[in-house]
Specification:
478 residues; alpha/beta; TIM Barrel; Immunoglobulin-like; six-stranded parallel β-sheet; six-stranded antiparallel β-sheet
Length: 478
């Protein structure tokens, strides 16, 4: 009898361990209890993503490994990529000449027996997607997997539109989810640069939300209700999905490439006040080397030019300090993986440096410094506090200063878009001596000011006026 009891106990322990393992498999990325930030295995997680949209579609196995290796070294922990890519991804074959579907009317997957990459018949489109996802997992990188780009749902671009009803979208998403249900490094992202509701002149033309909701339900049917799902919008997901969309894990925006003047911090503030409360992220800020608003035929290098690494920093840092839960970087040569021997760039104004050279662009390296900076004070309770700034806070994207601090008031960080003198109200933090550090977002270096500062107003100046932007860090000694 005792042996049977021991056996039963062991079985119970095994089942519990299995359930815990299964649970962690699909909840590695989750929302913090404060509904403001993200966690991984119950620890703070700072989402630092690169938009490698055409990764599955345009790169070979060797190129994908190179790409993942470099991004891993630079500190990226999420790669956002699309199963059915934007640039005619379902009619133009991938690097190996394979298409995702054998029949677009029935959406029959083009699957073959085996997955040997040395056998061109056996190694199909989906085998290649499998390979890239597994290689990312080896490097502790999550794949932010978009089942499809939005143009396969919403007409008006390359398309073609293949998801026209809830049934087809549900069946496709369920099959995709079942294929990757045992992969620990999947983050699900719906949408893909398209509105969920088509509004024209204030009138609703068509509502595409049933299609996206059907995909979300299919993923939940496979993974469970706690699965993390985001939506990548063309502007702001909060205007499409509300309290009834309990499948949506975060609110997101795309501040995009149309202007330098986007006040992303205002959108973060607004998004965090919405009901129900969700973390907020700018899922597509301006891309480095992207032409500024190139779509109207009036773009020139001299009049509008390109977004620089400074433009990228100035937008992303202020979005994070206003309360954003993660950062998404993009380079205009990378997302499309420009290689003029194989494909043309999407805009005539594109700089033709090629994707491999763009891998080490200034902004890509600088994003790793941001991740390290945030990780120095990794907690769930950071919030914007404009009252830390006792001097002029600025007025627009050129000069506005954004400050953040922990709720327990033990530290603060302030982003200065200009290397100008600033007055900080140290009374906003706990009493006691303060350590003040200047952080250079370009090279990641730190300059600790001598002495200890007490409460009151401190007037400070960045150590180098030739470096355009700076971060001020204030720590209260315990």
């Amino acid at each position: 009898m005792q042996s049977l009891l021991n056996c039963g106990n062991k079985m119970i322990i095994f089942v519990v361990a299995l359930l815990l393992c299964y649970g962690s498999l699909f909840s590695q990325i989750a929302v913090s209890p404060s509904k403001t930030y993200l966690t991984k295995n119950n620890q703070p997680f700072f989402w630092l993503a690169d938009t490698g949209w055409e990764l599955f579609h345009r790169l070979s196995r060797e190129e994908a490994i190179y790409y993942l290796n470099v991004r891993q070294q630079q500190g990226f922990n999420v790669i956002m990529a699309v199963a059915l890519a934007e640039l005619d991804g379902i009619r133009t074959p991938n690097y190996y000449g394979d298409l995702p579907f054998s029949d677009l009317k029935t959406l029959t997957w083009a699957e073959t027996r085996g997955n040997n990459p040395k056998d061109s018949i056996a190694y199909d489109y989906w085998d290649h997607v499998d390979f890239v996802i597994r290689e990312a997992a080896k490097r502790n990188i999550f794949i932010g997997l978009l089942p499809t780009w939005g143009d396969k749902v919403v007409p008006g671009a390359a398309g073609p539109v293949i998801f026209t009803d809830s049934l087809s979208s549900c069946n496709y998403a369920r099959k995709l989810a079942n294929r990757y249900k045992n992969q620990k490094n999947i983050i699900w992202i719906l949408g893909g640069d398209r509105p969920a509701v088509d509004n024209r002149n204030g009138k609703e033309i068509r509502d595409y939300r049933p299609i996206w909701r059907a995909m979300a339900k299919a993923i939940q049917d496979v993974y469970g209700k706690r699965v993390f799902i985001a939506y990548h919008p063309n502007w702001f997901s909060g205007e499409y999905f509300g309290k009834d969309d309990d499948w949506l894990s975060i609110t997101a925006m795309q501040s995009g490439h149309g202007s330098r003047e986007i006040k992303v911090w205002d959108w973060v503030r607004w998004g965090l006040k919405m009901t129900p409360k969700r973390p907020f992220m700018d899922m597509e800020p301006c891309y480095e080397d992207h032409p500024v608003s190139p779509w109207d035929g009036k773009w020139t290098r001299s009049s509008r030019g390109y977004f620089t690494d400074y433009d990228v920093r100035a937008r992303i840092y202020r979005g994070i300090f206003a309360g954003g839960c993660g950062a998404v970087y993009g380079h205009h040569q990378i997302w499309q993986f420009v290689d003029t021997n194989r494909n043309k760039p999407v805009f005539t104004g594109d700089t033709l440096i090629g994707w491999k050279q763009a891998m080490v662009a200034k902004g890509a390296v600088q994003m790793g410094h941001l991740k390290k900076l945030v990780s120095l004070h990794a907690d769930f309770e950071r919030e914007e506090d404009s009252l830390l700034i006792a001097s002029d806070r600025g007025h627009d994207y050129k000069d506005i200063i954004i400050a953040t601090r922990s709720k327990n008031r033990s530290y603060a960080m302030v982003y200065l878009p200009r290397a100008e003198s600033i007055k900080i109200n140290l009374d906003r933090l706990n009493e006691g001596p303060k350590k003040i550090t200047w952080f250079n977002p370009v090279n990641g270096s730190k300059s600790i000011l001598p002495g200890r500062y007490q409460n009151g107003i401190a007037t400070l100046r960045p150590p180098d006026a030739t470096q355009k932007d700076w971060v001020l860090i204030v720590d209260t000694y315990k």
